């Protein structure tokens, strides 16, 4: 996977905050999964991020290969998550699965309902490509 320096810094702060909070036991599995994903990531500057990679705050279209349905999600930090607006937290199994993958990639991950397989169809919005990056 590929991730920006700024996303990595913000996600590491999130991990530390959750590990130090009372919520850490509830989300420990998701924190551990996120740490594994970040450990294997290629880190790039925001200006060098390819436009076909899912970053934080990206809006993406994915195909659920099991359901044969197209779905749209925005990958966000936990405090911004909102199922009505299809904003999925980076700490949710789906969110952790999406970060850093590219258009065309197939992703397999464990969800509460079992193993899911998704294909990244397109990036509708990526902050880095739009020039909307927070320094």
What is the CA-based Rg, rounded?
14 Å
The overall strand count is: 7
Q: Could you give a short account of the major beta sheet?
A: 5 strands, mixed
- Give me the strand/helix succession: EHHEEEEHEEH
What is the averaged pLDDT score? 90
Large-scale geometry: globular
> Which structural category do the helix and sheet elements fall into?
alpha/beta
The order of strands across the largest sheet is 5-4-3-7-6
Given the structure, what is the number of helices? 4
Extract low-pLDDT stretches: none
Beginning-to-end CA distance, first to last residue: 21 Å
The helicity comes to 25-40%
Q: What labels describe this entry?
A:
135 residues, alpha/beta, two-stranded parallel sheet, 7 strands, globular
Describe this structure in words.
Strands 5-4-3-7-6 form a 5-stranded mixed beta sheet. A two-stranded parallel ribbon has the order 1-2. It is an alpha/beta fold. It is 30% helix and 30% strand. The protein has 4 helices and 7 strands, in the order βααββββαββα. Helix 1 runs antiparallel to helix 2 (24-39). The longest helix is centred in the N-terminal third of the chain and has 16 residues, at 24-39. Strand 3 (59-64) and strand 4 (69-76) form a beta hairpin. The chain has helices at residues 5-19, 24-39, 93-98, 127-130, and strands at residues 2-4, 42-44, 59-64, 69-76, 87-89, 106-111, 114-125. The model has no long low-confidence stretch (mean pLDDT 90).
């Amino acid at each position: 996977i590929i991730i920006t320096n700024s996303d990595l810094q913000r996600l590491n702060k999130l991990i530390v905050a959750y590990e130090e909070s009372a919520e850490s036991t509830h989300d420990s599995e998701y924190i551990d999964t996120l740490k594994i994903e970040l450990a294997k990531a290629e880190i790039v500057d925001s200006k060098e991020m390819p436009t076909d990679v899912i970053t934080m705050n990206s809006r993406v279209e994915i195909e659920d290969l099991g359901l044969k349905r197209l779905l749209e999600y925005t990958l966000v930090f936990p405090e911004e998550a909102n199922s009505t607006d299809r904003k999925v937290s980076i700490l949710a199994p789906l969110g952790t699965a999406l970060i850093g993958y590219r258009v065309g990639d197939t992703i397999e991950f464990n969800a509460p309902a079992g193993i899911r397989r998704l294909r990244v169809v397109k990036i509708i919005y990526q902050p880095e490509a739009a020039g909307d990056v927070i320094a």
